[in-house]
């Protein structure tokens, strides 16, 4: 039991230490943090006492304090030190203590106590916890921690789990000397349990009661949301921290990969929009026809009169169809090298300057009539805007392209934003800025929004399933919406959307009956997919008109399906021959075969993209072995393989003539939406990563290499396209 003199000495020591530590600051950390209770604060301080030599669990910690809160903490330590003979002033001045605050305290309180899965994820992730140097490269070595770097490094990734019996009377807390750098994985950590019991075990029931009665139990200041930038300058140990630049603050707020994606895609997407002659994009004549139909309320496939056979399409202004006809003749009749592909610039200028006529003409677009209105929403908006502004034909086409580009930036950009705190953001970036993806974003096609939705879906699946991080409410809403929209954007990617059922409900904050929400939305997505397939089924009978005249009647989906079911080995033989004869074309097309000019991107573009893929793979975060366990990862791989098979089966039935020797119509760009999830599976199975001389994953260097390689790839592709098309 302490005497009155002891208490007085302790109070004086507390006051002295409080005055010596006025400049301790708090670092913003997690978007969901809430103030800890007084009991929990005392427990956290007690649990992290460096004198206790307690075992570590790997939970992320923070040195968080304020002058008035620090005084209370040191006061509590002084009361115990007075009884144990430990000098509280010396402890506060020489020992670094970190106080653990859970980034999801409010959500954990709402969801109940941590589940066994959460605890397992927490322990499994602990050894791989590392700050993302890619979002804020300067944050890897905080200047103000020089005096305590050794202790900070030791404590930054661990929190004590329990006291030893022989240190029950040790000091409870000491002054924090600086703010620890932000951790990537704090958003999904479980709360520290049983805080009041920890105090009682560490200091004894009598000391805990004395601390409470004297009003010295500390209350931690709630951490700011993770999106809030850290203070520009702080003072720690008398040293002034260098003010962070505007670029660093923006990079931390939005993510370096997100910013780079927006800049590169906006610039090069606009370049391709201008460089590509009207209707020279992939199926851009039929794609624009369907977009125009949707913009004027034509949501369902519409049958049109055609002497050649079954046809679907819609009405388009005659002045627009005039440009379509000229473009079709132009890109199908090309002079030999080195002549330019474009016949006449003046002809496009003349046709494009005409006003949009009131007279409409029917246009055949059976191939795109099979698509739902969903992927055409941005293009339809662009058409309506152009009409409202009274733009001419050229302005109408450009407005439609730019609207699609903006839609791609918004949807895919949000996917990268969700990964802004993790190094795997650079993998998503590399896929999103592939030359073929950016080219399509700059032209009129349903693939623009299909690719965007696939990037968004994949990014959120990587975060929740493979990284094991908890999604925010906007991210959850986006994931659920994409589960319904992606299957009706392009049917071959329906299985990608169904991967939502593999995400642990805890990563979405779902408990109780809400755990079935993911299954509900998966069923809705599958049902909407089935309904639209039923609506669009008749269009398959008219797909033969896309081929040469002698093959108009040779594309019969029903006969092809019957053949697969009766003789699956024959189909596998045709598939094997297709791979043997066309795999090199698919590989090149994955990076870029630009439009109906059929211009392959140059070799330097492919090499630059491969470099970006290699570096983004090598610096990616390690995948979570708990949420992405063996079976979930295997199922994901099987679903990706099944999605690839759906691409081949779909084109075998809807485009390949009966008895043809290969599966015709397969293009490498069809595999782009599956790339992010496919590589994530490899990341889970291949643990190799780049590290520097300090055994840390480098940040700034790889980011510069990835962005530079992507710029080179896009520049080379745009330059080759310009030279061949425009001369």
Oligomer: single chain
Number of helices: 28
Overall structural class, as computed from helix and strand content, comes to mainly alpha
The largest sheet, given as strand count, sense and whether it forms a barrel, is: 2 strands, antiparallel
C-alpha Rg (nearest Å): 31 Å
Low-confidence regions: 1-113, 124-238
Shape label: globular
Report the span from N to C terminus.
93 Å
**Fraction of residues in H or I helices:** 40-55%
Q: Which strand order spans the largest sheet, edge to edge or round the barrel?
A: 1-2
Portion of residues in beta strands equals under 5%
Number of strands: 6
Q: Quick check: average pLDDT?
A: 77
Written description of the protein model:
With 727 residues, the protein is mainly α. 54% of the residues lie in helices and 2% in strands. The chain contains 28 helices and 6 strands. It has helices at residues 4-20, 38-47, 67-84, 88-94, 105-111, 116-126, 149-155, 195-213, 246-254, 256-275, 284-295, 318-332, 345-352, 366-369, 377-389, 393-418, 425-432, 435-441, 447-466, 473-489, 494-498, 517-536, 557-566, 568-591, 603-618, 630-654, 675-685, 700-726, and strands spanning 235-236, 239-240, 313-317, 360-364, 593-594, 599-600. It has a two-stranded antiparallel ribbon with strand order 1-2. A two-stranded antiparallel sheet has the order 3-4. Mean pLDDT is 77; it is low at 1-113 and 124-238.
């Amino acid at each position: 039991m302490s005497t009155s003199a002891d208490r007085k000495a302790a109070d004086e020591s507390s006051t002295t230490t409080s005055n010596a530590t006025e400049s301790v600051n708090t670092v913003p950390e997690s978007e969901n943090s809430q103030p800890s209770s007084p009991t929990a604060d005392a427990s956290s301080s007690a649990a992290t006492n460096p004198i206790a030599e307690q075992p570590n669990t790997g939970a992320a910690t923070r040195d968080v304090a304020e002058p008035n809160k620090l005084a209370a903490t040191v006061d509590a330590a002084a009361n115990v030190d007075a009884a144990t003979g430990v000098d509280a002033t010396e402890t506060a001045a020489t020992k670094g203590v970190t106080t653990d605050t859970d980034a999801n305290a409010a959500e954990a309180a709402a969801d109940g106590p941590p589940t066994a899965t959460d605890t397992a994820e927490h322990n499994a992730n602990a050894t791989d916890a590392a700050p993302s140097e890619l979002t804020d490269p300067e944050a890897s070595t905080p200047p103000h921690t020089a005096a305590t770097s050794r202790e900070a490094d030791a404590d930054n990734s661990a929190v004590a789990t329990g006291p030893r019996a022989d240190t029950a009377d040790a000091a409870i807390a000491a002054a924090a000397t600086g703010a620890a750098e932000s951790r990537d994985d704090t958003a999904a950590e479980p709360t520290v349990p049983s805080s009041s019991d920890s105090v009682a075990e560490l200091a004894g029931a009598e000391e805990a009661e004395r601390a409470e009665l004297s009003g010295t139990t500390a209350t931690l200041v709630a951490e700011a949301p993770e999106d809030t930038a850290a203070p520009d300058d702080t003072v720690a140990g008398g040293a002034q921290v260098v003010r962070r630049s505007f670029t660093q603050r923006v990079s931390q707020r939005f993510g370096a990969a997100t910013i780079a994606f927006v800049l590169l895609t906006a610039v090069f997407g606009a370049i391709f929009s201008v460089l590509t002659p009207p209707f020279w994009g992939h199926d851009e004549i039929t794609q624009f026809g369907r977009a125009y139909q949707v913009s004027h309320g034509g949501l369902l496939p519409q049958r049109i009169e055609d002497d050649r056979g079954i046809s679907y399409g819609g009405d388009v202004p005659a002045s627009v169809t005039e440009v379509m006809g000229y473009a079709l003749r132009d890109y199908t009749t090309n002079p030999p090298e080195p002549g330019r592909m474009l016949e006449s610039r003046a002809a496009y200028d003349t046709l494009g300057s005409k006003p949009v006529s009131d007279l409409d003409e029917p246009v055949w677009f059976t191939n795109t009539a099979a698509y739902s209105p969903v992927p055409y929403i941005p293009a339809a908006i662009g058409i309506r805007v152009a009409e409202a502004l009274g733009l001419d034909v050229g302005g109408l086409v450009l407005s439609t392209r730019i609207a699609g580009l903006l839609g791609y930036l918004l949807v895919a950009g949000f996917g990268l934003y969700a990964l802004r705190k993790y190094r795997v953001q650079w993998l998503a970036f590399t896929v999103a800025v592939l030359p073929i993806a950016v080219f399509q974003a700059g032209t009129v096609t349903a693939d623009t929004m299909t690719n965007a939705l696939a990037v968004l879906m994949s990014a959120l699946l990587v975060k929740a399933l493979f990284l094991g991080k908890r999604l925010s409410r906007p991210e959850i809403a986006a994931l659920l919406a994409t589960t319904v929209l992606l299957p009706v954007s392009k049917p071959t990617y329906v299985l990608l959307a169904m991967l939502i059922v593999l995400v642990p409900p805890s990563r979405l904050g779902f408990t109780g009956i809400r755990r079935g929400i993911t299954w509900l939305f998966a069923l809705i997505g599958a049902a909407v997919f089935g309904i639209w397939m039923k609506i669009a089924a008749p269009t398959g009978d008219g797909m033969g008109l896309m081929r040469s005249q002698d093959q108009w009647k040779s594309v019969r989906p029903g006969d092809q399906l019957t053949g697969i079911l009766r003789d699956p080995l024959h189909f596998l033989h045709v598939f094997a021959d297709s791979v043997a004869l066309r795999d090199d074309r698919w590989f090149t097309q994955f990076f870029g075969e630009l439009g109906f000019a059929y211009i392959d991107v140059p070799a330097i573009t492919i090499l630059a993209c491969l470099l970006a893929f290699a570096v983004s793979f090598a610096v990616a975060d390690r995948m979570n072995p708990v949420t992405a366990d063996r079976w979930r990862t295997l199922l994901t791989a099987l679903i990706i393989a099944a999605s690839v098979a759906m691409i081949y089966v779909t084109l075998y039935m809807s485009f390949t003539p009966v008895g043809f020797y290969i599966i015709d119509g397969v293009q490498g760009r069809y595999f782009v939406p599956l790339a992010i999830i496919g590589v994530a599976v490899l990341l889970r199975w291949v643990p190799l990563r780049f590290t520097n001389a300090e055994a840390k994953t480098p940040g700034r260097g790889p980011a510069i290499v990835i962005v530079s390689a992507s710029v080179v790839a896009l520049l080379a592709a745009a330059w080759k396209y310009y030279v061949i098309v425009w001369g």
